[in-house]
Specification:
Blueprint: E1 11-14, H1 21-32, E2 35-38, H2 39-47, H3 51-58, H4 60-75, E3 80-83, H5 92-101, E4 103-108, H6 111-115, H7 118-121, H8 133-143, E5 152-155, H9 161-179
Parallel strand pairs: 1-3, 1-4, 2-3, 4-5
Helix pairs in contact: 1-9, 2-4, 3-4, 4-5
The structure holds shikimate-3-phosphate (S3P).
């Protein structure tokens, strides 16, 4: 663990694509008066094009390299709320840096709830394109073990974004009060 106090550590949201990391992350940031960093958005800014175009033009490897660098730089900042793409935790170095520098919440959505969202996601998620439902299901379940590296899990199936954010903020405040009762 680094020497940043628990209250100042950045918060990282992980989970499969399209579970709501960006929406919930923005809410958490608002409630805690912190800056929000959406890693996909940062990558898109760097390349000045949408993710699908980055995949088409430069390939996934280039996307993953930029993703790693931006996440590592962001995790080393204090007091941020960071939403990372659903494939980021496939890279061990990203997992290790996030785990040692930040507090990680895994947003856990069931397959049954997730599959209802496919039509909303397909255009902007190159990793889903060209896959049939069985292949998406396999990817969904293959990815679940990589999210096991977290500090806390929130089951969000029946939770609107605002309530999920409240839950995260409340559990953070509880942890801060227990572990740093004097505000430090
Ligand atoms: C990806 C998830 C996306 C984005 C990219 C690749 C993945 O982020 O990083 O399309 O491999 O799971 P979201 O999880 O925010 O959709």
């Amino acid at each position: 663990m680094n020497d940043v106090s628990l209250r100042e550590q950045s918060i990282v949201l992980i989970g499969f694509m399209g579970v709501g990391k960006t929406t919930i992350g923005r809410e958490v940031a608002k409630k805690l008066y912190r800056d929000f960093i959406d890693i996909d958005e940062e990558i898109e800014k760097k390349f000045n094009m949408p993710t699908s175009e980055i995949f088409n033009t430069y390939g996934e490897k280039t996307f993953r390299k930029a993703e790693k660098q931006i996440i590592i730089d962001s995790c080393r900042q204090r007091l941020k709320i960071i939403s990372v793409g659903g494939g980021a935790f496939m890279q061990e170095e990203i997992r290790e840096v996030c785990l040692s520098e930040c507090i990680i919440f895994f947003l856990d959505l069931s397959w049954d709830s997730w599959k209802e969202r496919i039509s909303l996601l397909i255009d902007s998620r190159p990793v889903l394109q060209g896959k049939n439902i069985e292949q998406m299901k396999k990817l969904f379940f293959d990815r679940q073990p990589i999210y096991e590296g977290h500090h806390s899990k929130v089951i969000i199936d029946d939770l609107p974004a605002e309530e999920a954010a409240d839950y995260i903020v409340d559990s953070l405040k509880t942890a801060w009060d227990i572990h740093e009762p004097n505000g430090k």
